[in-house]
Design goal:
Layout lengths: L9 H11 L14 H11 L11 E7 L2 H15 L4 H9 L6 E7 L5 H24 L2 E6 L6 H8 L6 E10 L19
Antiparallel strand pairs: 1-2, 2-4, 3-4
Helix pairs in contact: 2-5, 3-4
Length: 192
Amino acid sequence: MNVPTPDVGDFEAVARVIASRRTSMLVDTERDVDDDVLDDLFRLAAWAPCHKRTWPWRFCKVRGDSRGRLGSVVATAMERSGDPTPKVDKARTKYLRTPVVLVIGSVVGDTPNRTVENRDATAAAVQNLMLAASARGLATYWGSCPTGASDDVARFAGFDDGTSIVGLFYLGWATSSPEAPERPAPIVTRRD
């Protein structure tokens, strides 16, 4: 993928993509997302700022029957943590809602501060990925990894020990877009 030098007109295009991104699972459940599209999203995610160039993000594509296996891994961890049975039961099938689920993790750093910086960089990579997905017509939803399930999900995804799960991302071709929620004005302190 060639990355062109931006021009001033690109600002409006970027602004439109940012303002159009929605958290949504209104997707065509029968239409898969091609590996080429996913690989483009991962490449763009990797352009995120990264202190000390640790490149800490890890991605796992989950589709087909593996989505149900992911649900079982999460549900088992939730049971172990004492979550209520209805919540555990829901976890077993919830990853079947979209054709693709992305598990995104952040590797542990060589110091506690670096671990925090790695997670920040991974969150920036997530934003790049979600904006790129919106620009392609995909809907995304950032789901949290349930408490106590991170290590199990990291093992399922084939990540190194200690990798923190930043999120479980539902992904599919959008069928519609929800209305944008009101956004509060940014809080800005000025020191001129």
